[in-house]
Amino acid sequence: MPHSNLAIRYNYHLDEIKPNNILTFNQEISSIPDIVKLTLGEPDFNVPEIGKQAAIASIENNDSHYAPGTGSEALRKAIADFLKVRYQLTYSPDQEIVVTIGATEAIYASLNALLNPGDKVLIPTPTFPLYETVVRMLGGVPINLDTSSNNFVLSPAMVKAALDEYGPAVKAVILNYPSNPTGVTYSASDLQALAEVLAQSKAVVIADEIYSELLYDGQHVSIATYLPEQTLVLNGASKSHAMTGYRIGFIAGPTEIMQKVSLVHNLMITSPSDPAMAAAVPCFGTETGRQASVEMRAAYQIRRDYMVEELTNLGFTVAKPNGAFYIFAQIPHQYGSDDVQFARDLAQEAQVATIPGSFFGPGGEGYLRMSYATSLDDLKTAISRIQNFLN
């Protein structure tokens, strides 16, 4: 192939985008023989039987034509039912819900619909790095707010200070909870206090609640409960129903904003695939389907409790996660704070793969993220190897 000399024609914002450290590091250590991987957020459960049978029926019934751009009517109604039953949120299936290709597309479509070049987005860190990447790619300016001194929870004071400093240039605030990577979540009072501050601005909250069904103590509350006119709720079937490969996510929000989100979405993908949407309908829209995530959550909770106790005994400092399926553990002080080197040594010498905390932004330095979305036997092997490594 001839060498291209057309770099000047590229989107110059892409020059600011760095390779995904999580995927790069995971690939780097994956070739180590017999390694136990606690790296990626990939549920080890199978898709619920009710979802699989619905997908099979869709294929056998030749459900193979273009769906509405916002997603099938059946799925949008099921999502509306899910949000009402589980979180007491009311959205119109016809005007206020869009089915996306996973939460990843939901993040991109939401930000694309909101941002103009130079607009600022408040991002509490440590957090999933895709948010900052997409903001930069769209010409926005990410404003990272380090929450590590506040138990990894964004406080109203932090939001107010940022709004006072940047004013109306703040177009959006991203709130991911339960959090990737910390597993920390927000109480109803936390969210109400944040909503009171944000209501004084015109900033839109992009509430990534993809782990909402994996909350161990108490009931998940959406910030849309307190700030519905300024909130886009992002969710999906990937984590709650182990359907990562089906790529079914969704966005719900007020009609005016959703009109713009829907426009971006339709220009990007036309529509999601029919069998995947069919599989998600009973998962969201029936009690049997919703119960499947409850059973997965119970298994995750056993794993979480095991990992928190064992890592604490080994000298790690763990912010006990109340949701998702990640442990965010601070490396014992005697081993320093170079989390990248520690993770690399742990992989090469102990055959345990983790993700360095610094990959998740300010406040993550000196930590490791460990996913417990794997079997308890694998977790026990990992703990045994970590113990030998530290000794």
TrEMBL record:
<keyword id="KW-0808">Transferase</keyword>
<dbReference type="InterPro" id="IPR015422">
    <property type="entry name" value="PyrdxlP-dep_Trfase_small"/>
</dbReference>
<dbReference type="InterPro" id="IPR015421">
    <property type="entry name" value="PyrdxlP-dep_Trfase_major"/>
</dbReference>
<dbReference type="GO" id="GO:0008483">
    <property type="term" value="F:transaminase activity"/>
</dbReference>
<dbReference type="InterPro" id="IPR004838">
    <property type="entry name" value="NHTrfase_class1_PyrdxlP-BS"/>
</dbReference>
<dbReference type="InterPro" id="IPR004839">
    <property type="entry name" value="Aminotransferase_I/II_large"/>
</dbReference>
<dbReference type="GO" id="GO:0030170">
    <property type="term" value="F:pyridoxal phosphate binding"/>
</dbReference>
<dbReference type="Pfam" id="PF00155">
    <property type="entry name" value="Aminotran_1_2"/>
</dbReference>
<feature type="domain" description="Aminotransferase class I/classII large">
    <location>
        <begin position="34"/>
        <end position="386"/>
    </location>
</feature>
<keyword id="KW-0663">Pyridoxal phosphate</keyword>
<comment type="similarity">
    <text>Belongs to the class-I pyridoxal-phosphate-dependent aminotransferase family.</text>
</comment>
<keyword id="KW-0032">Aminotransferase</keyword>
<dbReference type="GO" id="GO:0006520">
    <property type="term" value="P:amino acid metabolic process"/>
</dbReference>
<dbReference type="InterPro" id="IPR050596">
    <property type="entry name" value="AspAT/PAT-like"/>
</dbReference>
<dbReference type="InterPro" id="IPR015424">
    <property type="entry name" value="PyrdxlP-dep_Trfase"/>
</dbReference>
<protein>
    <recommendedName>
        <fullName>Aminotransferase</fullName>
        <ecNumber>2.6.1.-</ecNumber>
    </recommendedName>
</protein>
